[in-house]
Amino acid sequence: MGIVGIDWFKNLMGIVGIDWFKSELERLKKQHGVIARVLNAKIENEGLAEYQRILDNEFLAFSNEVEFKEQAVALRTLQELGNELQLVASYPSLFQKSMVVVGGGFSAGKSSFLNHLLGLKLPIGLDKTTAIPTYCLKGEREVLMGRSQNGGVVELPDFSFDHKTLNAFDFDLRSIMPFMLLSAPSVPFEFLCFIDTPGYNPSNQGYTGGDRQASEEYLANAKYILWVIDCQHGTIQSDDLDYLQELYEEHGKQVFIVLNKADMKTKNDLEKIATNIREILEDKGVEIYGIGTHSSEGHERSKEINENSSIFTPLEGFLRSLDKRSEKQKEILSVLYNVRLAYEKAIKEDLSKFKRYQKELRSLELDLMQKGFDDFGNKIFWRIETLKREFSQKERAKQESLERLEEVMDLFKKSIDKVFESVSAFTWEKYKDENDDEENDKENYREFEEIKKMVLECRDFYERCMKDRRAELNPKAFNRCKKQMDECNDLLRLDYSSENLKRLKQFKNDVYNKTYPEDLQKKWRRSKR
Fold this sequence. Notes:
Layout: H1 2-16, H2 18-40, H3 46-65, H4 71-90, E1 98-103, H5 110-118, E2 134-138, E3 143-147, E4 153-155, H6 163-167, E5 179-184, E6 192-196, H7 209-221, E7 224-230, H8 238-251, E8 256-260, H9 267-283, E9 290-293, H10 299-308, H11 315-322, H12 328-370, H13 379-420, H14 428-468, H15 475-492, H16 498-527
C-alpha cells in the first residue's frame, strides 16, 4: 500500500511538476503565516488599559453612589468610547488624520487613481480589485499592516489582498482582519488618510455581500468622499446615481467626483460629461463639492484642464484644503465632557433642592417664633432640627459627589491623552466656555427675535397713524411718524449678529419703552375727547 502511495505521488509530481508543488507550498506557508500573525496580534496600550480599569472600578463605584436616571445611557456611552479608543490605540497616528473614503463601482480605477495620487503600490487590474478596505497614509517607511479583530496591528508580507488571494484562504479573512493599513513616505498629504474600499456593485471578480457591506459602512461614516467615475462611460451610471442619492438623502454626504482616465477624452468631451453629470445630480437634488478630472497617463494635461476650466474644481487644491490635523481627540473628549455635564447638572439640581429645603425649614422656625411658639423643647422644633441636619448631610454628600465626579473625569481625560500619545489642550474649562457661548448665542437670538416683534408692533402703529390721521397731522408730526416707520423697516431687515442685537436693544430702550408708550397715550387721550 505504501509503495502504491509513493508511486501515485511520483506520477502526480510528473504530471504537475515539482515547481508547482514548491510554489504551492510557499503559498500555503505565507497564508498560514498571515493567519497566525493576525490571530496572535494583541493590543498593548497603557492608556486603553487605564481607561477600562477606571470604567470598571472608579466610575462604577461613583455611579452607584449617585442617583441619576440616565445612568444606563451614560455607562453605554462610555463603553462605546472605550471601543473607539481601542481603534485609536491600534494605530494612534492614524487618528491625527482626516479620513477621505474613495468610493465608486468595480473597475472605476480607484486603486490606480490612489497609486498615482499617493505614490503607492495597491494591486490593480481587472482580476485584482480591492477585497479588504485599506487605509493609505503617510509614514516613515513603506509597509503593509493588518489590524486584527482583537485590536492588534501586525506587519504583513508583500502580497496583494485581492479577491483571488482572499478566496484562496477558504474562509473570510475579513472576519479576523477587518482592514489593512498601507503607509509610505511618498504620500503628499500629512493629515489625510485615504480609504480604498471594495466596489459597491456586483462584478465577476469574486464580489461578495461583504464587499457591499464594507463599502456602505465606510461611505456612510466618512467625513469626506471622493467618488471615482470612469469617464469612458460618457455620463454617470445608474448604479452610481442611485448610490450617491442614497448617501445624500439618508446620510447627508456630499462627494467630490473624480472623472478618471481623462486621457481617453478631449477637453471638450470632459466638460460636456461633467456638465451632464452635474445637471443629473441637481435634478435628483444631490449636492456635491465639485468635479475634477484625473489621469495617471496624462496627469499634467488633466491638471491643466482642472485649473483652466470653469467647469472643474482642481482636485489637488480641494485635497489641500482638507489637509488639516484631525480633531478626533477633541471629539472623544467632548463626548466624555457631555457625560460629566449631565451628571453635574443632576447633582447640582439635588444640591439646590437640599439647600432650598433647609432655607424653608429656617423660615418655618422664624414663623413659629413670631406666632409665639418659642418652646424649643417642643417636638415640632425637634423635628425641624432633625430635618435640617438630614438635609445638611445630604447637601455635603452631593458636594462630595461633585468632587468625586471631577476626580473620575480627570482620570478618564488622562487615560484618553495617553491613548492618543499627546496631552490635549481641550480641558473641561474650555468645553464649558464653548458650551456657555452656545447657550448665550441661543439666548441672544431669542432676545433678537423678541425685540423684532416689538419693532413690528411699532412699525404697524406709526403706519396706521399716517394713514388714519394724515389730514389731522401737521407736517412735522407726519414726518416724525414716517421717520419712525422707516427706522422700523430698516431694523426688520437686519439679520442676527451681536452688532445688530445692540441696535435693536437701543431701539427698545429709546423708542419702545419711551417714545412709543407716550404716543400711544396721546392717541388714547385724543380718542376720549
